[in-house]
């Protein structure tokens, strides 16, 4: 799952030439691993809570952490500020639910790869370079390969993965709007609160009809901590020590990390064709970012 940015800089500027420090690289790797291990851990609760129940618990944990960090002054928000916050809250829950449903049906590696198409599409749509057009073709080829017809193809699961991609793209755009209208992480915290409140009836239904075991509840809470709390707090540190371009480039390894965690932790093996297709999607983003010029902060 994507983590919440601290908000855009107040003015457009060219990013200073600086490289990622060893501490910054270690933090990014730790954040990515925590995110994917959290997703894998949450999937262990699916047999009892289902994806919906796990996402509900994750939303509660995320809201608790973001409210503690962002401390939003809700009463001071204007309607112009509330509008994107409400949309972001809806996207927040839908994004996580679609991803966890995809993971339940098609596995961690494929689910995360399909969701990763959201930020990749945003990045490629922002430029008109030939190399970006080439990257878009490569990424599209990778997706077509992953979704090729097979006897075991789960198109519903893949559809949820693509819905997650749309939500992640909307999440990025809405976060930019929220960050420009509300200082700090207050807007994202408010959106997380709204999302958690939306999932309260769902959580109550799950508890009444599918009473959680101690183990399943522990897995769901761990998913909220590992996939929401830890990445968010680590990324706050990382973005102070790592250029935004390097940070975006490192996001490309998330589908690879997801495939590795799914294989080692959940026994979800991938064939060489699927591995090559995931590599094509990741490679398209790496090539696009690596060949781009200096970044500007919005």
Q: Low-confidence spans: pLDDT under 50, at least 5 residues?
A: 3-18
The radius of gyration over CA amounts to 19 Å
- Give the CA-CA distance, first to last residue: 22 Å
The whole-number mean of residue pLDDT values reads 78
Strand order of the largest sheet: 1-2
User: What is the share of helical residues?
Assistant: over 70%
What is the secondary structure topology, with strand pairs?
Layout: E1 13-14, H1 22-43, H2 46-70, H3 79-106, H4 108-125, H5 130-146, H6 155-181, H7 186-198, H8 200-209, H9 214-238, H10 244-250, H11 254-266, H12 272-290, E2 296-297
Can you walk me through this structure?
- With 298 residues, the chain is an all-alpha fold.
- The chain has 12 helices and 2 strands, in the order βααααααααααααβ.
- The protein has helices at 22-43, 46-70, 79-106, 108-125, 130-146, 155-181, 186-198, 200-209, 214-238, 244-250, 254-266, 272-290; strands at residues 13-14, 296-297.
- A two-stranded antiparallel sheet has the order 1-2.
- The longest helix has 28 residues, at 79-106.
- Residues 3-18 have low confidence and may be disordered.
């Amino acid at each position: 799952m994507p983590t919440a940015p601290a908000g855009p800089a107040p003015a457009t500027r060219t990013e200073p030439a600086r490289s990622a420090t060893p501490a910054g690289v270690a933090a990014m790797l730790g954040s990515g691993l925590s995110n994917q291990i959290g997703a894998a851990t949450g999937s262990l609760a699916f047999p009892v809570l289902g994806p919906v129940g796990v996402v509900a618990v994750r939303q509660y944990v995320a809201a608790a952490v973001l409210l503690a960090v962002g401390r939003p002054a809700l009463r001071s928000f204007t309607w112009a500020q509330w509008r994107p916050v409400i949309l972001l809250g809806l996207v927040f829950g839908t994004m996580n639910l679609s991803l966890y449903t995809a993971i339940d049906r098609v596995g961690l590696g494929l689910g995360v790869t399909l969701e990763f198409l959201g930020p990749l599409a945003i990045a490629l749509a922002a430029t008109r370079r030939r190399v970006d057009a080439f990257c878009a073709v490569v990424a599209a080829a990778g997706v077509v390969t992953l979704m090729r017809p097979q006897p075991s193809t789960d198109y519903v699961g893949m559809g949820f993965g693509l819905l997650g991609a749309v939500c992640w793209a909307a999440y990025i755009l809405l976060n930019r709007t929220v960050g420009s209208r509300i200082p700090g992480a207050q807007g994202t915290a408010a959106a997380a609160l709204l999302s958690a409140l939306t999932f309260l009836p769902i959580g109550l239904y799950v508890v009444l009809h599918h009473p959680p075991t101690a183990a399943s509840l522990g897995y769901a809470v761990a998913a909220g901590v590992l996939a929401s709390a830890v990445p968010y707090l680590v990324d706050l540190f990382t973005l102070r020590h790592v250029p935004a371009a390097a940070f975006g480039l490192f996001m490309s390894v998330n589908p690879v990390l997801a495939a590795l965690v799914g294989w080692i932790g959940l026994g979800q093996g991938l064939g060489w064709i699927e591995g090559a297709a995931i590599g094509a999607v990741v490679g398209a983003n790496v090539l696009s970012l690596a060949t781009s010029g200096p970044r500007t902060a919005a």
